[in-house]
UniProtKB/TrEMBL annotation:
It comes from Streptomyces capoamus. This is Ribulose-phosphate 3-epimerase. Pathway: Carbohydrate degradation. Pfam families: Ribul_P_3_epim. InterPro entries: Aldolase_TIM (IPR013785), Ribul_P_3_epim (IPR026019), Ribul_P_3_epim-like (IPR000056), RibuloseP-bd_barrel (IPR011060). Its cofactor is Fe(2+); Co(2+); Mn(2+); Zn(2+). GO terms for biological process: pentose catabolic process; pentose-phosphate shunt. The active site is at 33 (proton acceptor), 173 (proton donor). Catalyzes the reversible epimerization of D-ribulose 5-phosphate to D-xylulose 5-phosphate. The keyword Manganese applies. The gene is rpe. GO terms for cellular component: cytoplasm. Its EC number is 5.1.3.1.
Amino acid sequence: MAVQINPSILSADFARLAEEAKAVQGADWLHVDVMDNHFVPNLTLGVPVVESLARATDTPLDCHLMIEGPDRWAPQYVEAGASSVTFHVEAAAAPVRLAREIRAKGARASMALKPATPIEPYEDLLPELDMLLVMTVEPGFGGQAFLDIMLPKIRRTRELIKKHGLQLWLQVDGGVSASTIERCADAGADVFVAGSAVYGADDPAEAVRALRTQAEAATAQASWVCDH
C-alpha cells in the first residue's frame, strides 16, 4: 500500500489559499474541510471556494463534507472540481446511492465515521467505496489532540478491508503529526490528513516529506502489511 499525505487547508491561511496550496509541493492530495455550522459547530467554505482552488492547483482535491444533507450537496463538489468526496454516514440518508452517484460523476467516493460511530454495521457498504475515513478527533475544529482510543477501530477497519479483499484506502484525520502518524500506520491507515503539523511548520513541503518518511517506515514493519 502506498502512503499518501493530505495536508488540510483548514490550517492554512484562508486569505492566501492558492499560495498555501503551492507551499505543500509533493503532497498527494489537498484535504478540504467543508463545514456548515449545523452538522459540526463551525463554518468554513463551500462550492465557490472549491471551484477557485481547483483552478489554482494541480494537486487533486479531497473534499471532506462535514455537513447536513450530503445526498444533496456532495455531487456539486464533484462538479466544482473535487477528485474525491467524503460524506459522513451519520448525515447521509442513502449512503450507497450517494457513493454510486459520486463515482458516476467521476470522483472517488469516501465515507467518514465520527469517533463514536462503529465500523461493523457498515461492513456491507465497503465495496461501494474507494476510501473510508476514521476520524481521530471529533469533527469540527483543527488542532485537536489525537484520540488514541481510535487505534483499535482503525485496526478493525483494516481487518474488514482485508477480509473482503478490497483495494480500499483507509484515511485518518485529526491530530495526525510526527508523534502520532507511526501509530496510525501500524494500525492500518495508509492515507493521512495533517493540518497544523504541516501548515504550522516553517517549511510545509518538508513537513510533508518527513511525515511520509515516518509513515512509510512504520507501514513497512506493520503486521497488517507483513501478513498480507
